[in-house]
């Protein structure tokens, strides 16, 4: 990861933590930083699946949650929740019948789709957004969008 290398190169200690170890690890970190695929009008972010739960865990542990994203990722979109994104995803796929390969066994399930899936993290879980033009509170995103688009 390029960001990890750059931060470590400046002397900042960085830990890359596996998703299943996040809750366990939060007691040993001071800050949580993630990237984003998009920053929406209300200051929330669209990012890889699991970012929302990471933000919820950070909030629960009292850790600041920062999103690092370039300003070109600010988009004119205003989702109201997880299922209001303008993309079709099959993360939850209820089935009946035989128990099969959907639990991660060889060749099964929607693993490829899950790896490409995204979620929405609402602005109230985000401490600040770090961009190449400065640090912004989530509520300042709409103002930045006006500067970009108009």
Termini gap: 34 Å
* Overall mean pLDDT: 81
Instruction: Using the CA coordinates, give the radius of gyration.
Output: 17 Å
Shape: globular
Number of strands: 7
Can you give the helix content as a percent range?
25-40%
Q: What ranges have pLDDT less than 50 throughout 5 or more consecutive residues?
A: 105-112
Spell the H/E element sequence. Answer: HHEEEHEHEEEH
Instruction: Give the count of helical stretches.
Output: 5
Main beta sheet strand tally, sense and closure: 4 strands, mixed
What is the SS-derived class? alpha/beta
Fraction of residues in β-strands: 15-25%
Strand order, largest beta sheet: 1-4-6-7
List keywords for this structure.
3-stranded antiparallel β-sheet, alpha/beta, about 150 residues, about 25% helix, 5 helices, 4-stranded mixed β-sheet, 7 strands
General description of the model:
- The protein contains five helices and seven strands, in the order ααβββαβαβββα.
- The protein is an alpha/beta fold and 150 residues long.
- The protein has helices spanning 2-9, 22-25, 51-61, 111-116, 141-149, and strands spanning 32-35, 38-39, 45-48, 65-68, 118-121, 128-131, 134-136.
- Strands 1-4-6-7 form a four-stranded mixed β-sheet. It has a three-stranded antiparallel β-sheet with strand order 2-3-5.
- The longest helix is centred in the middle third of the chain and has 11 residues, at 51-61.
- The radius of gyration is 17 Å and the shape is globular.
- Helices cover 25% and strands 17% of the residues.
